[in-house]
Write a structure and sequence with these properties.
92 residues; two-stranded parallel ribbon; 7% strand; 4 helices; mainly alpha
Length: 92
């Protein structure tokens, strides 16, 4: 899963086996080659490499998803730093 996030952050296209974790992270821009089908993986990687515009679009879409998520996290962190600390008690 970390490798997928790394590829997304770098704007690299993703070809993967049919894994739930990768599908949840990479969404629609990932090329899936079925469960543990090595020839299919090689075929899809070669096909994607021949289609440069498609490859770039996949990479850009995934990079945008990561960048948006990071901006949201940064905004939340900034808000938490600027808001006054609240004491949490067990009483209502």
């Amino acid at each position: 899963m970390n490798k997928i996030l790394g590829y997304m952050a770098l704007g690299k296209p993703i070809v993967q086996f049919d894994f739930t974790e990768g599908m949840l992270l990479a969404s629609t821009s990932v090329v899936v080659c079925g469960p543990k089908r090595h020839r299919g993986f090689c075929r899809e990687t070669a096909r994607l490499a021949r289609q440069l515009p498609t490859m770039r679009n996949h990479g850009r879409a995934e990079h945008a998803r990561v960048a948006t998520s990071l901006r949201l996290l940064e905004a939340y962190a900034a808000e938490m730093k600027s808001s006054p600390a609240r004491k949490v008690t067990s009483e209502p």
